[in-house]
Write a structure and sequence with these properties.
Layout (H helix, E strand, L loop, with lengths): L2 H14 L1 H8 L4 H7 L4 H4 L1 H24 L1 H18 L6 H29 L4 H30 L3 H4 L1 H15 L15 H8 L1 H24 L4 H23 L8 H5 L1 H31 L4 H29 L1 H21 L6 H29 L5 H27 L5 H33 L1
């Protein structure tokens, strides 16, 4: 890899790490935000929930926008949007405005993630796989150390600093990207005389609207019902509206010429469908622990943000150390054995959570974190390999897009699961119930992982 390629990698890496960094740092800030804005646990969980909803919607949209307007333009615009959101979020007069800026931040950081891999594929021709693996380290590494960074920052400078910390990354990435990312070539899909209807068809504006409003209505109705302790007529109406809009979204996507999410692909390639379902369940497990354990430590065990961040570092370090080892193992044996071990570790970790109590030693918490960290490292490589194994080469780009959507659906559902189990306040009884639910999901992954072993055997034969 030449010097110019290395600087391009650094430019892109500093930009794409902002999305996972900001999604993970806030997990340690939940108790502080709950006290500052006088909210219950379900209410404050929207600081997590809104970020993932916005990211899951923004990334496929921005990926399509980069094809129309150019990847360099979208990447640089994303940095500007992230800068503005990070600067204004700490100045929010109330929690509603903080959520607004959090959504803007998710959109800006998603613009960079959506085009980062494409920029590498287009502009780095030598050792491309090595370059893509480096970018994955930026993504997984930022998510892994986010709770530690967040804990240290909040301990010394308060919750607002987790937004200000983005500004140096944004400025350096913008200067490097302006210098190192090649200029975009004119797009043949966009013409000056294009009608407004044509624009809407290209970006699938109807699909975006149906998906966004339907998903928000559905999730808001479920969280609101759990928080209030009863199901009101308003909750039922919002639930029905959400389901109806998502049903209309599926129907629209099946007929759209340029769909936001190509649903027909799931029906055509069932093996790929199962990989996406499994990846969604993996992320429900991982992020339920990722967001639930810091709250357990701070609210049940009364551990400080700083100490919580240090403990959560166990999760990230185990994941980062395991990933390169998993790559070598999967190259030799295929994804099946690694994914089976991962599922068994998640089952063990989930059962271990149920055994924790208010006086369990710190080493017991680290055991659960290590089990989930190692399994996450195996999944980072194994699930991607399983996707490539199950997806025809001619639709690998579409398959990767659906794979990323499954990741965000898993994180959204993990936030919803925690909100429903805990209700208005994070408590120890709810934490044990969460552990039982995660055990059931992990056991289902054990059985699902056997599909990969059978698939690997059929490929060998």
């Amino acid at each position: 890899m030449n010097v110019r390629s290395r600087w391009l990698m650094i430019s892109i890496g500093l930009g794409i790490l902002l999305n996972p960094l900001n999604s993970s740092m806030v997990s340690v800030a939940i108790p502080r935000l709950q006290n500052v804005f006088h909210l219950d646990y379900t209410g404050v969980s929207w600081i997590i929930f809104s970020f993932y909803i916005a990211s899951s919607i923004a990334q496929p949209i921005m990926g399509k926008a980069s094809d129309l307007f150019g990847r360099r333009k979208i990447f640089l615009t994303g940095l500007v949007v992230a800068f503005i959101a990070s600067l204004l979020a700490p100045l929010s007069p109330n929690f509603a405005w903080l959520i607004v800026f959090r959504i803007v931040q998710a959109i800006g950081t998603s613009m960079m993630v959506a085009v980062g891999m494409a920029l590498v594929r287009n502009h780095i021709t030598e050792k491309q796989a090595t370059a893509l693996s480096i970018l994955s380290i930026f993504l997984s590494g930022a998510a892994a150390i986010g709770p530690f960074i967040g804990g240290v920052i909040i301990h010394w400078w308060g919750w607002s600093a987790i937004f200000f910390i983005n500004i140096p990354f944004v400025l350096v990435s913008f200067l490097l990207s302006w210098r190192n990312i090649p200029k975009d070539k004119p797009s043949s899909s966009v013409s000056r005389g294009m009608s407004l209807r044509k624009w809407f068809d290209l970006i699938d504006a109807s699909g975006i609207l149906l998906f966004t409003v339907g998903l928000v209505a559905l999730l808001a109705s479920l969280l609101s019902a759990k928080s209030s302790g009863h199901i009101s007529l308003g909750n039922v109406i919002a639930l029905l509206i959400g389901l109806a809009l998502l049903g209309a979204f599926i129907r629209h996507e099946l007929r759209a010429a340029s769909p936001l999410i190509p649903i027909r692909t799931f029906a055509k390639y069932p093996a790929m469908t199962w990989v996406n379902v499994e990846f969604m369940l993996v992320n429900i497990l991982y992020y339920s622990l990722f967001f639930g354990l810091p709250s357990y430590l701070q609210m049940v065990r009364h551990v400080s943000e700083y100490q919580t961040g240090i403990l959560m570092l166990t999760l990230g370090l185990c994941s980062l150390v395991t990933s390169p080892l998993a790559g070598r193992w999967i190259d030799k044996s295929g994804p099946g054995p690694a994914l089976l071990v991962s599922a068994l570790l998640m089952t063990f970790g989930s059962v271990w959570l149920v055994t924790l109590n208010q006086t369990s030693p710190v080493i017991s918490v680290c055991v659960a974190l290590a089990a989930f960290g190692i399994s996450n490292g195996l999944n980072n490589v194994g699930m991607q390999a399983a996707l490539f194994q199950s997806s025809p080469q001619e639709i690998i780009g579409v398959a990767s897009g659906l794979f990323n959507t499954s990741r965000y659906l898993g994180t959204i559902l993990s936030s919803l699961l925690i909100g429903i189990v805990m209700g208005g306040k994070f408590n120890f009884d709810g934490f044990q119930v969460l552990g039982i639910i995660l055990t059931v999901i992990a056991l289902s992954l054990v059985f699902m992982s056997r599909r990969h072993q059978k698939s690997g055997q059929s490929h060998e034969s």
